[in-house]
Amino acid sequence: MPRVVDRAAFQSELDAIRVREKAHIREGDAIAAARRRLPMVEVDSTTTVIGSHGSVSLLDVFEGRRQLIAYYFMWYPGHPAPEQCEGCTWCTTQVAELSYLHSRDITYAVVCQGPFDESFRYRDFMGWDMPWYSAQDSLDTLLVGRRIGLMHLVSYLRDDDRVFETYWTTRRGVEAMDYSLALMDLTVYGRQEPWERTAHRPVVAARSRTLRQTELNTESRRETREMNTPPIVSAQQWDAALQAMLVKEKEHMRAGDALAAQRRRMPWTPVEKEYAFDGPDGKASLLDLFQGRRQLLVYRAFFQPDVHGWPEHACVGCSLMADHVSNLAHLNARDTTFVYASPAPQADIERLKARMGWEHIPWLRTHSSATATTRSSAPTSSTTAATRRL
What we know:
Layout: H1 7-36, E1 41-43, E2 48-51, E3 54-57, H2 58-61, E4 67-73, H3 86-93, H4 99-102, E5 106-112, H5 116-126, E6 132-134, H6 139-142, E7 152-159, E8 162-170, H7 179-184, H8 209-219, H9 235-264, E9 276-279, E10 282-285, H10 286-289, E11 295-300, H11 316-323, H12 329-333, E12 336-342, H13 346-356, E13 363-366, E14 382-387
Parallel strand pairs: 4-5, 5-6, 11-12, 12-13
Antiparallel strand pairs: 1-8, 2-3, 4-7, 7-8, 9-10, 9-13, 11-14
């Protein structure tokens, strides 16, 4: 258990870790920029997969958009639902709202490595509605040089009737799909995996503000339909460039693990103020928000009078976050409760939730600043982690 300190000492250590967190985010931006500069390799656009309307080409899977992200779902033919891949099920459950990808000209689809009819029944059983295909007979072409039967996340680019593969990742690389792990990394118990006990790992050095601004200026694009594509190279050259990128990605991921480990070692500060909330069932205390679990994550949402969009809309960024909170079961399984909180009247909160399809997210009205006593009083969004002692 971390040591308990006063608010000032707690804030001092939090400020110190914030410096590392910002450096880590900027390093991630630099890696993403390098990822966009990778060369690409052409793949056969006529390669067939099976969808709900029968056999279609890889080009058809784009649904007319410029880019495609395909998740290659592991499959065990003939096995019942409880024996299918837990990790792929975990990742796919996080995919709730595709409109944000579509607005960036990106199609997302699951490409199962098993038979279509059998796997599509699993999709329906799980309540998923994303596009679903089977590539069982085309895996040697689509996953050339990779281990068939392992999960893969692959990015494609279309230029008229030509298709190019621009990036792929596997194993921990597919964590990009999962918000639950990112939220768990903010809690004192973390992901509760054995490997989190490993020794401290090095942190990637921060880049200068000037370098960061140069990258932003270089990578920014005007609204245009003109193609600005990476160089087309052979499969061998593309693989070499991808392997070099993989080294950077692994370093960055391990640095993130080290940051998460430092967060778990942060001291605690007692919450002595009495907070009051309004929920759908009436008044609630901060302790009530835990719902009997050990840990609590509170997202302080930007939805209240005198805020842009009120009362019809919440903050665009807060809405984006809520749209991606598809299933809280993974957090709950780690003894963690997740709630939204904002100063809006509860009736307006319930109306917004119903209109946006957020009924599964606990959302309460705050009667005061419900996340900290030392932050700015200006309306803003924030996430706070809390733990209760039994």
